[in-house]
Amino acid sequence: MLDIQFIRDNPQLVKEKSAQKGYQVSVDQLLEIDGQRKTRIIQIDELRRRRNEQANQLKNQRPSEEQITVGRQIKDELSQLEADLKLIDEQFDKLLKAIPNMPHDDVPVGATEDENVVARQVGQKRSFDFKVKTHWELAEAKDLIDKERATKVAGSRFAYIKGGLVELQFAIIQFVMRTLADETILQKLIDENGLNIPAKPFVPVLPPAMIKTPVYDAMDRLEPRDERYKVGSDEDDLWLQGSAEHTLGSMYLGEIIPEDQLPIRYVGYLTSFRREAGTYGKDTEGIIRMHQFDKLEMEVFSTPETGLDEHKLLCALQEYLVQQLDLPYQVLQKCTADIGKPNARGIDIETWMPGQDKYRETHTADYMTDYQARRLKTRLRRMPKSLNKVVAVDEYSAPTAGIELVHTNDATAFALGRIMVAIMENYQTASGDILIPEVLKPYLAGKTQI
Predict the structure, then answer these.
(1) Number of H-type helices and E-type strands within the chain
(2) Angle at which helices 135-142 and 416-426 pack, to 10 degrees?
(3) d(CA 403, CA 412)
């Protein structure tokens, strides 16, 4: 969520920027309740001071009737004010959480995703001297995808992935892990993009597949809930995550990270789940839009001054990975209506799918500034380099000098199903075989085709 002081100082800007993202927010009501909240806090602090003062006066002596009466009055007033503050806090939190992150200055203003801007197109589309097939036609001929049997077992939008396609997926995983651990590649991309950040490798992580409701809500990724899968009973209080960044980005919940440990860069591999509500009849063939899918997701925790550079590095890495597979693609700068509530900036990559004769989204990169970190209470300590212990803090820790909120970024390395679709359709042959991209051959024991 946004800093309340920023909203106090810039109410009109917050209204305008929120409207650009499609949110009609109650800034005036929030500020009115904010004023009531500050008044109640002052009143409560004053009553607590009087209560403590009276307690000190009565040490080692019996109170008079008048003092007892005054003490009861203070107790009753304090109890009522604290109850009032609790209700005010609930209203305050609800209104504050409803305000989206402010879009970065370079984000195009648009009312729908149709107003996203194509920044560039990269790569040459292949020419085929035969009628190209869709990935599901190719997969059916080679028994690589079985949705019919998966439907019997789990319902629609599930699939058995089989044979060479499984080998291809694990080759892609190895390729990504090696790339993101290669400081030479990272430094090259940092230099090419003029970034002022270190070439620190990404650490591979297998994160939890489930997340608690308060944590999911703090990430601001729980809504819309009809897209999510609730697990078990309300007592379990767990959801299946919709992408690895949901449990990677919340990893340092309630912690203070020393500045010299930043940036922290992770690449998480996880099977993820989405209901795909509202997509009835869309992409029913093949594996473009599934309830269950595997993803490699990048997550970065950084200082505020390097957050945007980290975002640009993630975008550069996404392009590098697609380029290494020799796939044509286009880069979209997402408009205000499409970047998402917690995001300040968003970039998509759409990869060319010749079997479908169009570009399809395969990557997204999101820069959240400190919006997620504020509710997660994920902070950094500006401190001497010799101190490097991560300190856990409770919810009510008072602000400390040198403590700031971290900035967070997440970005797709590969949505494995979608990038395999792109490989299948771009690398198909007239005989229906699927050639292996050159960069993946070392991970497939010399195999050249599926």
Answers:
(1) 13, 17
(2) 90
(3) 30
Write the pLDDT tens digit of every residue in 278-317.
777 788 889 999 999 999 999 999 999 999 999 999 999 9
- Answer yes or no: are the C-beta atoms of 107 and 333 closer than 8 Å: yes
CA-closest candidate to residue 227, choices 242, 217, 214, 237: 242
- CB-side neighbour CA atoms (13 Å) of 57: 12
Nearest to 249 by CA among 289, 281, 207: 207
DSSP notation for 280-339 = TTSS-STTSS-SEEEEEEEEEEE-GGGHHHHHHHHHHHHHHHHHHTT--EEEEE--TTTS
Rounded average pLDDT over 214-232: 94
254 neighbors 396 (Cβ within 8 angstroms): no
Token readout for 329 is: 């693609």
The span from the CA of 414 to the CA of 410, in Å, is 12
DSSP letters for 118-139: EEEEESPPPP-SS----HHHHH
Q: State the pairing for strand pair 264-273/203-205.
A: parallel
CATH architecture of 4-97: Orthogonal Bundle (1.10)
253 class by beta-carbon count within 10 Å (0-12 exposed, 13-18 middle, 19+ buried): middle
Q: Is 6 helix (H, G, I), strand (E, B) or coil?
A: helix
Instruction: Summarize pLDDT for 149-208 with one digit per residue, the tens.
Output: 999 999 999 999 999 999 999 999 999 999 999 999 999 999 999 999 999 999 999 999
Average pLDDT rounded to a whole number, residues 257-263? 97
Domain boundaries, the chain: 4-97, 113-443
Of 370, 388, 371, give the one whose Cα is nearest residue 257: 388
Q: What is the CATH number of domain 113-443?
A: 3.30.930.10
| Beta carbons of 409 and 366 less than 8 angstroms apart | yes
